[in-house]
Automatic annotation (TrEMBL):
Domain (ABC transporter): residue spans on this chain: 95-331
Residue ranges, compositional bias (Gly residues): 60-73
Family annotation (PANTHER family): INTERMEMBRANE PHOSPHOLIPID TRANSPORT SYSTEM ATP-BINDING PROTEIN MLAF, PROTEIN TRIGALACTOSYLDIACYLGLYCEROL 3, CHLOROPLASTIC
UniProt biased composition (Basic and acidic residues): 1-24
Molecular function GO terms recorded: ATP binding
UniProt keywords, alphabetically: ATP-binding, Nucleotide-binding, Transport
Stretches the record annotates as Disordered: 1-92
Identification of the protein by name: ATP-binding cassette domain-containing protein
UniProt keyword Nucleotide-binding, yes or no: yes
Taxonomic superkingdom: Bacteria
Amino acid sequence: MSLFSRRADRHRDEETGRAADARPDPLGPEGEVGDGPETRPGDEPTGAPRAGVPAPRTEGGAGGDGRDGGQGTDRGLDGEPVTGNAPPPPDNVVVELRDVYKSFGPKEILKGVNLAVERGTSAVVLGGSGTGKSVLTKHVVGLLTPTAGEVWVLGDRVDLLDQDQLDRKRTRLGYLFQGGALFDSMTVYENMRFFLDRLTTLDRGEKDDLIDESLEDVNLPETLHQYPAELSGGQKKRVGLARTLILRPDIILYDEPTTGLDPVSVRVVSELIVQLRDTRGISSIAITHDLLAAEIITDQAHFLSEGRIVANGTLQEVRRSDNPVVEEFFKGTEAYGAA
Ligand SMILES: Nc1ncnc2c1ncn2[C@@H]1O[C@H](COP(=O)(O)OP(=O)(O)OP(=O)(O)O)[C@@H](O)[C@H]1O
Ligand SMILES: [Mg+2]
């Protein structure tokens, strides 16, 4: 039996009933407060949505085998795609960056990034530290806007959306931050409750059920009343993932989901990501330095260097690239990747 079947059933019910309550903004309290785990409730983003959350669009056909993730019917916001008159990507492409440039002052970070993610697949972005991988993914959730270029997500150009449209688009996206971003002063339960309290109008019993179920999804029900400091690195990542999952996103962005973990935990977290793809049809973009994680997760790999995608394809294809930076990267990670 699928690990997620119970929740999937529950959510199908919600889609006909209380779906508006069950699909709040996925960025949640950590959405615009940075990557660090030291976030506190008082640090909430100013632009975050409130309880009573933006209503999602109806998802006819959702709840099938999960592979589709219910994304097939809703192109554009309010029925009118925000395209800026550019031709949208084909239906099977859920995220596309077209010739994206990003500068911070004189610092050019992205210099013409092109990248597409097909529905129900896991894309992995590889590259050295400081090359712009996090910057790239922040464009997908609208935390950054490009200096030039187009950022397409589920049929709309997020670089052109206003705040209200962006809030609604974000109900479809989950973002697992590099640091996990749990509130240190709160237990796991309180962290998740805080998230749901702010973003939904579900009653207490429903919230508690969602919390229990989503911790079961990541096989950590026993951590409910523990504080983040009492959890291992891998457990923290999985709790962060549980909190992202509670909002039932169609696309999840994982920023270094396995960094700092031992190989066993790397495998557990990576296999969880694959399971989400296979049982829920969640499309994803994962940033990683970790070759073991990449080997487990990757459908399509994209190697970022000097502001551009210099190699893409399967992991094997990227590994065979003769770009010297790519060669160096794989040489540096070979020993671990082969473990
Ligand atoms: N908001 C910002 N303002 C100015 N510079 C920024 C901002 N965000 C990122 N940068 C710069 O962009 C560059 C790329 O940063 P980014 O965080 O995307 O790197 P990364 O590839 O994710 O690195 P790592 O693997 O270490 O996480 C860095 O030089 C960083 O200082
Ligand atoms: Mg980063």
